């Protein structure tokens, strides 16, 4: 355009937008002058309009007495010719990255504000990052909108150029990144692109995108509508992410491809690397290499960024360094995860040589492997053939040193033994050795069958290693050794009754060492009686305190928490049947109590308890009673929890209420403690207890016998 040295605008009451270029603002001012087309406006002002000359339009605007900050903003948003290209927002772009024809726009942006955006001339941006739609070049009638047409709201044929679209942030990632680099949007980070100039970013993304979105071909395809977005997604992470994108392409188009060399795997992409700048070319070439190696070698893990910095060493050289055979190098390297045999005839990472040497020193002979696993040496080969162990050979070339085994794999087998479910009855269990001898089996076959879950496990012994721990299911009942225990100890059930806490809470107290030394055996767990009695005298659960004070246990816990007092055991949300336990002195101090609210002081209850406990010891010795009934009540039960009875004292009625449950049957009893004529009633109730237990036990035994009968007949 050629301009005369006069002011072409008589009014400029429109303010330039934050992203508006000079040529767009020029067109808006021309429309305010009453013109419909740029041709008309040029004729009125003796202007020659034959192209979008951004520099001349900017100079024409600067002749007007407009605010200085307007000119700075317009110049910043306008692609101005400078040297061998354009400068846009401080970034130099070559000529082929800026294109004014055809005129493009985003209908969503036009609907929000009818003005031109400076980034619509960047040719590689094909989608709006704000509304995630493709930029349009034609109106609804299919006609291009020329630069001579001044309107932004409607085309020359009356079609609306804008329409309401929702704002989105889940599309057009390439355009969003470029606008962040230009400063129009919030910047996002892409480690492989942040440090290189925008023209290289555009070439980089379009090259990678063209390769990834097209199948193999002899000639490279043209840049597509989504090429830059596809390329940016692959390049928005680290070098490992780029290699993984190449790997996915290889998996899709080159499955089981048997070509030699990396170039043959990647079609036109590898030869065309020479068109990229050197810094980018080296990264893409290494990405092609990593993708080919990881995919053809069938590695499970993904390519990582640090894989690009690894140097490799031939396995023959490693074998000489370590004094082992080349085959052993490959085997050890594969086990520690550093073998890449596609590279230069099975080379290994140089930094992994020390790792291989360290791993080699940890290997143990077959005798040690058998001892740790608690099995015959001959059984080791069965575990190897079944895939549970690997044997490493050729570690001392020229010598008969035998194979070696990995302690980590041995530990894995031991963990599998620990995780085997115990589903059989301990009364019908035999050791693994006795079982295989009786059935004429070899040790290795029995061991493999156990790991596969083909043999029912009845019990796991302590103080013996590996497979020796296992007791397996048989059809014949075995004799169990009788045992006795000291009066200074008590069982977990007795401790639970004395503490008036749940079994799970008692377990936690035992685990944390609050209940003295523990004597554990497959049959039962014994605890120090004195330790339990001492703990019961000094501690109680929050619900017992709350019941005695007429509030909830949660209220007690919250108040103690506010006072900074931590419980000995704390209820955990989702943890079943766990009580919150506090020290008695802490609760009494916080609430200012002189009497312990967890102690029931009533002579009537004491007399009843003194009568029922010895009577129960005669009729129902299997019932476990506490030494005294607490205010919140107490549940008593037998050792296998087949029977339970809840005792609750109602002080207002002077009455003890008992709810009895035995394997589905339920009964209720009441005792008026205001009278003393209830000794005979207690004996009758205990007889009912005993009868219910015997009937329930007989029903259960009958079910068990029927199950065994069906099992044997099957």
Please provide a written account of the structure:
- The chain has 714 residues and is α+β, with helices and mostly antiparallel strands.
- Helix content is 40%, strand content 11%.
- The protein has 26 helices and 20 strands.
- The longest helix is centred in the last third of the chain and has 35 residues, at 679-713.
- The radius of gyration is 43 Å and the shape is flat.
Strand numbers in spatial order across the main sheet: 17-18-19-20
Quantity of strands, as a count: 20
Q: What about the largest sheet? A: 4 strands, antiparallel
- Helical residues, percent: 40-55%
Radius of gyration using CA atoms only: 43 Å
Q: How many helices? A: 26
> Which residues sit in consecutive blocks of at least 5 with pLDDT less than 50?
1-5, 479-483
Mean pLDDT: 84
What is the terminal-to-terminal distance?
100 Å
Secondary-structure-based class equals alpha+beta
How much strand?
5-15%
- Tell me the overall shape: flat
Pfam families: TniQ
Protein name: TniQ family protein
InterPro entries: TniQ (IPR009492)
Domain TniQ: 15-135
Write the layout of secondary structure elements.
Blueprint: H1 22-32, H2 38-44, H3 54-62, H4 68-77, E1 80-82, E2 85-88, E3 91-94, H5 107-112, H6 173-182, H7 198-212, H8 227-235, H9 239-253, H10 278-296, E4 312-313, H11 315-322, H12 326-336, E5 339-340, E6 347-349, H13 353-362, H14 366-373, H15 380-385, E7 391-392, E8 404-405, H16 407-419, E9 429-431, H17 432-439, H18 443-451, E10 457-460, E11 470-473, E12 489-491, H19 492-499, H20 503-511, E13 518-520, E14 525-528, H21 529-538, E15 539-541, H22 542-549, H23 553-562, E16 581-583, H24 584-591, H25 603-619, E17 634-637, E18 643-650, E19 655-662, E20 665-672, H26 679-713
């Amino acid at each position: 355009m050629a301009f005369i040295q006069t002011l072409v605008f008589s009014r400029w009451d429109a303010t330039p937008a934050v992203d508006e270029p000079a040529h767009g603002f020029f067109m808006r001012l021309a429309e305010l002058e009453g013109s419909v087309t740029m041709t008309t406006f040029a004729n009125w002002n003796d202007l020659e309009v034959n192209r979008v000359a951004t520099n001349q339009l900017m100079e024409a605007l600067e002749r007007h007495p407009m605010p200085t900050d307007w000119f700075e903003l317009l110049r910043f948003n306008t692609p101005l010719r400078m040297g061998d290209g354009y400068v846009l927002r401080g970034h130099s772009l070559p000529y082929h990255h800026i294109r004014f024809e055809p005129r493009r726009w985003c209908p969503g942006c036009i609907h929000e504000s009818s003005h031109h955006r400076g980034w619509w001339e960047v040719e590689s941006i094909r989608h709006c990052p704000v509304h995630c739609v493709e930029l349009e070049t034609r109106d609804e009638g299919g006609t291009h909108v020329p630069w001579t047409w001044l309107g932004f709201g409607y085309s020359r044929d009356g079609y609306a150029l804008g329409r309401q679209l929702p704002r989105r942030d889940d599309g057009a990632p390439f355009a969003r990144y470029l606008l962040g680099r230009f400063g129009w949007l919030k910047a996002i980070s892409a480690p492989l692109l942040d440090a290189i100039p925008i023209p290289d970013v555009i070439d980089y993304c379009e090259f990678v995108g063209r390769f990834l979105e097209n199948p193999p071909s002899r000639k490279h395809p043209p840049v597509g509508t989504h090429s830059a977005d596809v390329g940016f997604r692959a390049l928005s992470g680290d070098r490992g992410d780029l290699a993984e994108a190449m790997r996915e392409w290889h998996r899709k188009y080159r499955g089981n491809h048997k070509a030699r060399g990396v170039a043959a795997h990647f079609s036109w992409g590898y030869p065309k690397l020479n068109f990229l700048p050197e810094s980018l070319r080296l990264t893409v070439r290494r990405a092609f290499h990593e993708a080919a190696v990881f995919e053809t070698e069938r590695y499970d893990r993904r390519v990582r960024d640090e894989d690009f910095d690894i140097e490799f060493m031939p396995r023959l050289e490693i074998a000489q360094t370590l004094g082992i055979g080349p085959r052993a190098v490959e085997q050890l390297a594969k086990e520690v995860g550093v073998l890449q045999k596609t590279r230069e005839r099975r080379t290994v990472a140089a930094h992994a040589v020390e790792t291989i040497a360290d791993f080699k020193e940890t290997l143990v002979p077959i005798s040690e492997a058998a001892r740790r696993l608690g099995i015959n040496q001959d059984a080791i080969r069965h575990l190897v053939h079944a895939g549970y162990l690997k044997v490493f050979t050729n570690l001392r070339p020229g010598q008969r040193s035998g194979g070696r085994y990995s302690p980590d794999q041995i530990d894995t087998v031991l963990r599998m033994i620990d995780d085997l479910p115990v589903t059989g009855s301990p009364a019908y269990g035999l050791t693994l050795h006795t079982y295989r001898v009786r059935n004429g089996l070899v040790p290795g076959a029995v061991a493999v069958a156990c790991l596969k879950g083909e043999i029912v496990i009845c019990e796991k012994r302590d103080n013996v290693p590996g497979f020796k721990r296992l007791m397996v299911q048989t059809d014949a009942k075995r004799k169990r050794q009788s045992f006795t225990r000291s009066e200074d100890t008590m069982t977990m059930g007795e401790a639970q009754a004395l503490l008036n806490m749940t079994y799970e809470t008692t377990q936690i107290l035992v685990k944390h060492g609050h209940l003295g030394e523990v004597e554990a055996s497959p049959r039962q767990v014994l605890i120090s009686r004195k330790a339990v009695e001492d703990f019961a005298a000094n501690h109680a659960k929050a619900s017992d305190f709350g019941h005695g004070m007429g509030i909830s246990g949660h209220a007690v816990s919250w108040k103690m928490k506010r006072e900074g007092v931590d419980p000995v055991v704390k209820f955990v949300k989702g943890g079943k049947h766990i009580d919150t336990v506090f020290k008695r002195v802490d609760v009494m101090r916080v609430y200012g109590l002189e009497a312990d609210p967890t102690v029931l002081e009533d002579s009537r209850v004491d007399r009843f308890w003194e009568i029922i406990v010895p009577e129960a010891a005669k009729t129902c010795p299997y019932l476990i009673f506490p030494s005294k009934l607490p205010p919140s009540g107490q549940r008593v039960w037998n050792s296998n929890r087949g029977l339970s009875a809840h005792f609750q004292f109602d002080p207002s009625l002077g009455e003890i209420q008992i709810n009895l449950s035995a394997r589905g049957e339920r009964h209720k009893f009441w005792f008026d403690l205001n009278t003393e004529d209830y000794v005979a009633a207690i004996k009758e109730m205990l007889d009912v207890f005993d009868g219910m237990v015997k009937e329930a036990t007989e029903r259960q035994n009958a079910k068990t016998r029927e199950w065994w009968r069906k099992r044997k007949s099957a």
